[in-house]
User: Fold this.
Amino acid sequence: MAKTSAGLKKPETTSGPAAAVSERDLPALRRRVTGVLVAGQVLGGLGVATGIALAAVLAQEIGGSAALSGLAPTAVVAGTALGSAPLGALMNRYGRRVGLVVAYLCGSVGAAIVVAAAALDSFTLLLVGMAGFGAASAANLQARFAAADLAVPERRGRAIAVVVWATTVGAVIGPNVSAPAGRSVTPLGLPAAAGPFLWAAVVFLVAAGVIGVLLRPDPLLTARALAPVEPAAESRNPRAALIANAGSSRARFALAALAVTHTVMVAVMAMTPVHLAGHGAGIELIGLVISGHVAGMYAFAPVMGRLSDTLGPLPVIALGMALLAAAALLAGTAGPNHAQSAAGLFVLGLGWSAGIVAGSALLTDSVAEHARASVQGLSDLVMSVVAGVGGALAGLVVAVGGYGALNLISACLLIPLAVAHAALVRRREGQ
Assistant:
């Protein structure tokens, strides 16, 4: 690790050492990093939300079956999962900037493949493209940890929440541009549901450019350079991350909370467009419902972050579980009532926000500095794999038992998490 004449460490990159950063420089650097991450999240959220709103609908059109429709959002989640480990490895070696840029580029290629699949009427190619599209979602998830790299512990929840909140702008706009995006490709003989993916491919390229040019110096490399202890190389691999995570009951619970929260959200959200379409909703109404859901996910993240910093992450995770259960009740009993479905999806988003912000803060606080990046990558891998399985089964559950059964099963997933939460709270009170 290089040092200046004043003894300050300089973060190293693949192209050489960056400019030295002192404690006095940190407030301005935090603001700059946050601003760049916010810009990237706006664009990334726009691209992901534009495409994901109609992923199941496009899959049903190409596959010809509602039972297959859940495989499209599942492929997105699987792509997010498969991209998490390589993305974590890239970030560990080269920093956040390189990892985020590569992920957005992969997402752009994936979106283009989805458009090609629609043109060729190939369901297999569609799933391949959806998996590549999921890499952009992995970038959006990992950006929240980039915001925490330089944050002081007492403001870590808010730092994470600001970047999560930034997704609101693009994510709310995204589903509502699905209709004009669809109209833009129909003259080309493509299904309207393919249009959003063409637009997303372009947006991801812009996001990659913003991050690649402006995210300097790299927050992760800077945090490591300023750390009092040099991280051991062996601490930055998946096996070391697993060991570090297993050694902390709080870290284990945080990982479980992230996985269950994301799974419940993905399973219910993925099949809601199919449910709405089955009750006569058009593409504009579906986009509006998904926009409300996304607003719940991201717009209130600063509130969840402040609550997490003030009350602690555990009470906010409990709030998230209660909101997810309420959402399952609302959505599962909505039937043809589109207003109730919209309310259920909005509450579902609120529950996800509470669980993800507080769970991410708890995970970061529960693991030593040198192991955080690896454990964070592991957490996104696990939550994406579990949610991918849930999304894959969601289509089958709806085909066999209906949308109400899917919501009931999703609510039941919260029971063991609530038991673990109660045990952790009792253990903490007994100390």
